[in-house]
Specification:
Number of helices: 3
Radius of gyration: 36 Å
Number of strands: 0
Largest sheet: none
Strand content: under 5%
Shape: elongated
Helix content: over 70%
Order of helices and strands: HHH
Structural class: mainly alpha
Length: about 170
């Protein structure tokens, strides 16, 4: 009888640990969604993958601890574990992971800034000559358009004058 109670306590604590792991994975999922901001279809796919992972954890814990037998205290252990994690550890873990991710993002931005520095330098040196050439081309194209419109404008005026000259009074 003593080993039976010990076995049930082991199973309960294992499911408690499984609930904590599920809570941790949920926090990782929340952080992932915060940074990526997915659309509706991507959210559906991510939710589906999340629930597959949670199901795999649930089944794995049950198979390794209880040989696949489902009891009420197993569900209770998972729920209590997830509740304890969300109540006491979630804020600490999320803060730490967000701090780490923000640090990694800052480092990556610094590295990319360092890598693209020569290109930005070249671009800034070419910016003024490009703008001057662009404004000259724009002025030239406006003049050309005006000169190209001139025969049509003259023809239009000529037609108008011819009409008034030959109109009967």
């Amino acid at each position: 009888m003593d080993s039976f109670v010990q076995n049930q306590a082991y199973i309960f604590f294992a499911t408690l640990y499984g609930g904590i792991v599920m809570g941790f994975i949920y926090d990782l999922y929340r952080i992932f969604r915060y940074y990526l901001k997915p659309k509706k279809v991507a959210t559906f796919i991510e939710d589906f993958i999340f629930w597959i992972i949670i199901s795999v954890i649930f089944v794995t814990v049950i198979l390794y601890t209880n040989w696949g037998e489902i009891r009420g205290y197993i569900f209770l252990g998972f729920f209590i574990g997830a509740f304890l994690y969300s109540r006491f550890l979630s804020k600490i873990i999320i803060t730490a992971i967000v701090w780490i991710v923000n640090g990694i993002i800052k480092i990556l931005k610094y590295i990319l800034k360092f890598i693209f520095f020569p290109f930005r330098l070249i671009g800034s040196k070419l910016h003024n000559p490009y703008n001057r050439a662009k404004s000259r081309v724009n002025r030239l194209s406006k003049r050309i358009k005006r000169y190209l419109k001139l025969p049509f404008t003259l023809l239009k005026g000529l037609k108008k004058n011819i009409k008034t000259m030959f109109s009967k009074k």
